[in-house]
Design goal:
This protein is of the alpha+beta class and 464 residues long. The protein is 30% helix and 22% strand. It is built from 14 helices and 19 strands. The chain has helices at residues 38-51, 74-83, 91-95, 116-128, 193-209, 218-225, 244-248, 277-288, 312-317, 347-357, 359-363, 417-432, 438-444, 447-458; strands at residues 19-21, 24-29, 55-58, 64-69, 99-101, 141-144, 158-165, 168-175, 183-189, 258-260, 265-269, 274-276, 293-296, 301-305, 331-333, 368-371, 385-390, 393-401, 404-412. A five-stranded antiparallel sheet has the order 1-2-4-3-12. Strands 5-6-7-8-9 form a five-stranded mixed sheet. It is globular, with a radius of gyration of 22 Å. Residues 1-10 have low confidence and may be disordered.
């Protein structure tokens, strides 16, 4: 393997710059705005089979990863993906192409506008802007417009959120976190939003150049220098009528599973985001017969549009899920030692046991993530219980506030994960008493007391 591909901990691998992992090279196809047509989906499936292990992964940024590639076939694999319009030859241009667009605004009558052209223009502009090659590799953008499948809960560094206001379409420009908690810089018309986004990033790059320890994300820049330092001129600071985006954020949104968006789409999720090339090939054949498309989402699912629903037996054969309440979807995990040299545990097997043990807690809206190391690859934004492996054992932590975790158990052997989460579930049900969710109840409990109770229950002692 050449030195170019030996950096195991590379932050954001792409097609032009793959990453070495425990099961070979990993290529990441950046989010295809507007989805894949049948030819593109078949190309990815064929590349995964011919040059890799046949294992594919959907990511929380709407990307698609190919695992287990061999260096000998790398150039041929790249050529196939580039020929299908799925990759850049220039690694620097590819590295800044981290733009996630709401998947269905072109067919959603409730969306403020179709944001896909805006997202494509932004991708093009980022790639053509030499100064922005200095952006940190994980900096990403969400472009959305409300509607039936909003991205209000999907985290991003820069949020461009279209809404209908004052007789036209405006974009709210905000930094970090979710729509509810982001720092709002201001408002701009649709025709100016790409220039505004570039100006925000230019300010971020300039601020980082003058700092000895620069923040890697825009939320960190806000914390250090304040929002004014990142706000370009020309933004409307407020709009008459208040925050039109905040006013439209739904309490509950369609999960995009099974038949959704009033029959305009059909969603299939995959536990851990993992699917085989054979499944993608089958999906490609399904959309080819009807000239449909496959849209990639940040929920590790695929949305089929322009086609009839897939038969349940076929979904099951491919390992897919169409029930939003399926407990397998409440547990996530990185690939662990099976495919990563940094992983020290069989994370996905442990995650399956975790889901069974904590089914009550998860039914109340919880999410458990199992990570094979402290990098926490693939951890979803709504994870509230975290298992982190250290040399073959786990730490169990609870999220107490955004980005603040508290460890309550340490040195858990994989076989102790199930009883530990069963104890956590039992305490949550006991404390909740039917008046609040188990997760809300756990937030009230002091960490040391929770640790003591969990240990007592796991050792068959008195939990009190």
């Amino acid at each position: 393997m050449s030195a170019d591909h030996s950096r195991v901990r590379r932050a954001c691998p792409g097609v032009a710059a793959p990453m070495a992992t425990g099961d070979g090279l990993l290529m990441r196809v950046r989010h295809p705005i507007g989805g894949l047509d049948a030819r593109q989906a078949e190309t990815i499936a064929e590349v995964a089979r011919r040059f890799g292990s046949g294992v594919l992964e959907l990511t929380s940024r709407g990307n698609l990863q190919l695992r287990g590639l061999d260096a000998a076939g790398l150039e041929l694999a790249r050529a196939e993906l580039e020929g299908a319009g799925l990759a850049d030859r220039d690694p620097a241009a590819e590295a800044v192409r981290n733009v996630l667009a709401a998947p269905l605004t072109d067919i959603d009558p409730e969306a403020a506008m179709d944001v896909q052209p805006v997202a494509r223009d932004l991708v093009r502009a980022l790639g053509e802007h030499p100064r922005l090659r200095a952006l940190p590799p994980k900096v990403g953008v969400v472009v959305e417009a409300g509607g039936g499948l909003p991205l209000d809960g999907v985290p991003a560094d820069l949020r461009l959120e279209a809404c209908t206001a004052l007789g036209g379409v405006w974009f709210r420009v905000a930094l970090g976190a979710s729509s509810r908690t982001a720092t709002v810089l201001g408002w701009t018309r649709a025709e100016n939003v790409v220039d505004v986004a570039l100006a925000v990033f230019e300010r971020f790059v300039a601020l980082r150049e003058g700092d000895v320890d620069p923040p890697g994300r825009l939320a960190g820049a806000v914390a250090r220098w304040g929002p004014e330092a990142l706000t370009p001129p020309g933004l409307e600071r407020v709009l008459p009528g208040g925050d039109w985006v905040a006013a439209r954020i739904p309490e509950y949104a369609d999960a995009g599973m099974g038949t959704c968006l009033n029959g305009r789409a059909f969603g299939i999720a995959f536990p851990f985001g993992a699917l085989r090339a054979e499944a993608l090939q089958g999906l490609a054949e399904h959309i080819r017969a009807h000239d449909g498309r496959l849209r990639l989402t940040p929920w590790r699912s695929l949305l089929l549009t322009g086609v009839p629903p897939v038969e349940p037996d076929r979904v099951a054969e491919w390992g897919g899920v169409t029930d939003p309440d399926d407990p397998r979807l409440a547990v996530s995990a990185c690939i662990g030692q099976m495919g990563c040299s940094a992983g020290s545990t069989a994370t996905r097997a442990d995650a399956e046991r975790a889901g069974v043990a904590a089914c009550g807690l998860l039914a109340g809206g919880g999410q458990v993530h199992v990570s094979g190391c402290d990098k926490h690859c693939g951890r979803p934004a709504n994870a509230q219980v975290l298992l982190t492996a250290w040399e073959g054992r786990y730490e169990l932590s609870l999220q107490r506030a955004p980005a603040r975790w508290e460890t309550v158990l340490t040195r858990l052997a994989p076989g102790q994960v199930e009883p530990a989460l069963a104890a956590l579930d039992a305490i949550a049900r006991e404390e909740g008493g039917g008046h609040e969710s188990g997760l809300e109840a756990l937030q009230r409990l002091e960490g040391t007391a929770l640790t003591r109770r969990m240990n007592a229950m796991m050792n068959n002692g008195d939990p009190a």
